[in-house]
């Protein structure tokens, strides 16, 4: 039975999202993530290339053409969000960051001293750390495709610590259901970080994440304290969040 058009379109959107966030991606990695055959992925990549949304290479694909322009614009917005978030970190702060690439980008912009970063993002070992913040890795099962640390070991370690602030990226955010996370294995960890923060929590979400409802709920709308986004975030959704009592910061 052929897949419905909505399922096919959704899968292709997820392929584009992966290419945007990770750069070069292999057919086998995409097939494993989306739980379809490599042949199906090749067909999707051919379709997306024909529409100038990405560029294929032997065994995989990367952003190209019109998609590269979109990626550059989005990456710039994410960097500005990360820079602003980093400005909220004060001397001697302890902070949680999750596996989000936007949250990870904060590290190179932190200027405060004696900061402690607690995270399940294994990619932090390769990130610039000019402030020489202390890094505490929560450990656990490492998901190589994303660098995420997940599982019981991670949860047990997280249950032993608290942080003054947390900075969380997301797969989607909307005023009716809140913040969502696509990877099921990360949902519980994100929920725990929100519960174990003793001060302020911030969700880092560029405008493309607004209105998206991808995965499971990590934080319901009534619990969202602060959102840091860009100036292109949909005005109506921003207004709805503010009506709920959420502070929404929009960087230029």
Class of the largest domain in CATH?
Alpha Beta
Query: Might you state the CATH topology name of the largest domain?
Result: Rossmann fold
* Global mean pLDDT: 91
Helix-strand string: HEHHEEHEHEEEEHEEEHEEEHE
Estimate what percentage of residues fall within beta strands: 15-25%
SS-based structural class?
A: alpha/beta
Distance between the termini: 47 Å
The DSSP helix count reads: 8
What is the share of helical residues? 25-40%
Low-confidence stretches: none
The rounded Rg comes to 18 Å
Could you say how many structural domains there are in total?
A: 2
Helix-strand blueprint:
Layout: H1 5-22, E1 25-26, H2 27-34, H3 38-50, E2 55-57, E3 60-62, H4 66-87, E4 94-97, H5 101-105, E5 116-119, E6 134-137, E7 141-143, E8 148-150, H6 152-158, E9 165-169, E10 172-174, E11 178-181, H7 184-196, E12 201-204, E13 216-219, E14 226-230, H8 235-243, E15 247-251
Helix pairs in contact: 2-3
Based on the model shown, name its key terms.
single chain; 252 residues; Arc Repressor Mutant, subunit A; 8 helices; globular
